[in-house]
Design a protein that fits this description.
The complex is a heterodimer of chains A (about 260) and B (about 300). Chain A contains eleven helices and no strands. Chain B is an alpha/beta fold and about 300 residues long. Chain B contains twelve helices and 13 strands. In chain B, strands 5-6-7-3-8-9 form a six-stranded mixed beta sheet, sandwiched between helices. In chain B, a hairpin with a 2-residue loop joins strand 11 and strand 12. Chain B is elongated, with a radius of gyration of 22 Å. The chains are: A mainly alpha (about 260), B alpha/beta (about 300). At the A-B interface, helix 1, helix 4 and helix 11 of A face helix 2 and helix 4 of B.
Chain lengths: ~260, ~300
């Protein structure tokens, strides 16, 4: 396959993945609006308006993580499970479509949706809550937040491979909502009892949020290397689980559709 | 078709392929040969192993035992993928993309795709191009799948039960589209459990039962071999008494009825009436496909 054609397939696959997601209200509305509504309510309206910028600034980082986590884990987790269930994936595998194009499209969709949410949060933070950051902090925060697509897509991929079709949405929610809460994405982690803070240490969203908070000097104080190491290790575990699941699933899905 | 060595004619083949899903044997030493330019009907009841055979030829299943080859290569090889298309038994593609968008995406996968307008015309979808897939009827959805299978201008097409679940109109419409493929010089492998469908479309039919090839020939040949009749009646005659009569394939009791599958119904009825004056509720019907397959299995024993 020529490089030009390969490039074109990657782009088209990504374009239609995004178009498809935008046209799916059950996906687009929660992923694009929930983080913004939560931020508006908990930080802009209920925050200490004008007196201190601590709450809206802190929440900008954690709701940013929440905003990136949603599309990545749902797009991959529920999307892949659904496409395996309906047989779309099987059909595409009979064509010359490179497998990489399929994964690329899903990652790009998560990245674009995440970027839209982060941009909207930044606008709200700067103009409605009066959050003031150095220019480098805005850029660094955006970069750190969007890099979260990598571990969260890997987590979604593992769920999408192991969960069966329609149950995948439930499984994703069972991972997504408790993880968001326990990682301190909704309420600051330091308000939790010690036991819950210990649980958070195992969660990728916690470490990602801590990296985002470090940009604005509001993190819990653990070294950057620890967060990095945990995120990398967990990403590799998710990818390994996904690979294992794919091999296992092949023999099973065929048995069903004989 | 020019005469020549057999290899020139054979586009795809399975040879002595055995495939198991755990303890279940889906294919049992199956031989299958697809010749250039033909419509090959792969016929068999549900669970006969048709989809497994197609999956092996598509490379979506790995060969466990035996050999599979398409265009002289491994079935999943990249050079094979660009020359073939497939219509599978899947429950659907993205409901949120339009017909045109789906076609555009699949065209991009191939180096020399057919023009989108031509694909829409071939599948009779001109008026539906802007419609989202999710809003189409069952027959229209199948036509989209048909267009996607043709997107790369394939030499070889696999159609796995293409008309399952369609009403008569939609089925006949797809049939005429499949006939068009043959005229354009393409080779088609069509699986079906419908004898009429194979009869309407195929140049050659391979009948699979329990993972084995039990018959092969033109549709007319296959039909003549399955031209059994099922004779039902209420009688005191027991199955073992008629089993030995000429033409009888099988005799069994079902409820109050004696059911006899035979190729010579006139002789059987005459005999039955002669032996039992109290015989009642007599019917003679064409054997169903299951019985036809039974007749074929008997023949090959």
């Amino acid at each position: 396959m020529t490089l030009g054609r390969r490039f074109r397939i990657y782009l088209l696959e990504a374009r239609f993945q995004i178009v498809e997601a935008l046209r799916e209200p059950m996906f687009a509305i929660p992923t694009l609006t929930f983080p913004l509504i939560f931020y508006l309510f908990f930080s802009v309206i209920m925050g200490t308006r004008g007196v201190s910028l601590t709450v809206p600034t802190y929440a900008l980082a954690t709701y940013g993580v929440f905003g990136v986590l949603g599309p990545a884990i749902f797009g991959f987790g529920a999307g892949l499970a659904n496409e395996r269930d309906t047989g779309v994936l099987l059909l595409k595998q009979t064509t010359p479509m490179p497998a990489g194009a399929y994964l690329f499209a899903k990652v790009m969709a998560a990245l674009i949706f995440g970027a839209v949410v982060v941009a909207a949060l930044f606008l709200m933070a700067a103009h409605m809550a009066g959050v003031a950051l150095h220019r480098w902090q805005w850029f660094a925060l955006a970069g750190v937040l969007l890099a979260g697509v990598i571990p969260f897509c890997a987590l979604g991929l593992a769920i999408g491979v192991w969960a069966k079709g329609r149950s995948a949405v439930a499984v994703v929610n069972l991972v997504f909502l408790p993880m968001a809460m326990l990682s301190g994405l909704w309420l600051p982690i330091f308000m939790f009892p010690d036991v819950m803070q210990d649980i958070a240490l195992a969660l990728p969203a916690y470490h990602h949020a801590q990296l985002a908070l470090k940009v604005i000097a509001m993190d819990a104080g653990q070294p950057v290397q620890v967060h990095f190491a945990v995120l990398m290790a967990e990403t590799l575990v998710f990818l390994a689980l996904a690979t294992l699941g794919f091999r296992r699933a092949d023999s099973f899905s065929m048995r069903r559709s004989r | 078709m020019q005469a020549g060595p057999q290899q020139d004619h054979t586009l795809a083949s399975l040879s002595r392929v055995t495939h198991r899903y755990g303890p279940v044997v889906a294919l049992d030493g199956l031989d299958l040969e697809v010749r250039r330019g033909e419509v090959l009907g792969v016929l068999g009841p549900n669970g006969a192993g048709k989809t497994t055979a197609i999956s092996l030829l598509l490379g979506s299943l790995g060969v466990q035992e035996g050999a599979a080859s398409v265009f002289g290569c491994a079935p999943g090889a990249p050079e094979v993928r660009v020359r073939r298309g497939a219509m599978l038994q899947i429950s659907g593609i993205s409901a949120n993309l339009t017909v045109r968008e789906h076609i555009e995406l699949f065209r991009a996968y191939y180096p020399a795709p057919l023009p989108a307008a031509r694909l829409l015309a071939m599948a009779g979808l001109e008026d539906l191009a802007q419609r989202r897939y999710g809003k189409l009827s069952g027959g229209q959805k199948q036509r989209v799948m048909f267009a996607l299978a043709l997107a790369g201008d394939p030499e070889l097409l696999f159609l796995d039960e293409p008309t399952t679940g369609l009403d008569v109109d939609a089925r006949h419409r797809l049939w005429s589209e499949i006939r068009g493929l043959r005229e354009s010089g393409r080779t088609t492998v069509l699986t079906t459990h419908n004898l009429d469908e194979a009869d309407a479309l195929a140049d050659r039919v391979v009948v699979i039962h329990n993972g084995r090839r039990i018959a092969e020939g033109t549709p007319a040949e296959i039909k003549s071999r399955t031209a059994g009749r099922l004779v039902r009646c209420v009688t005191r005659i027991r199955p073992d008494e008629v089993a030995g009569l000429p033409g009888v394939v099988e005799a069994r009791t079902r409820g109050r009825h004696l059911e006899t599958l035979t190729t010579q119904p006139e002789d059987l009825v005459r005999e039955l009436l002669a032996r039992d004056e109290a015989l009642a509720d007599l019917t003679v019907v064409a054997a169903g496909l299951e019985d036809a397959f039974l007749a074929l299995t008997r023949d090959t024993k």
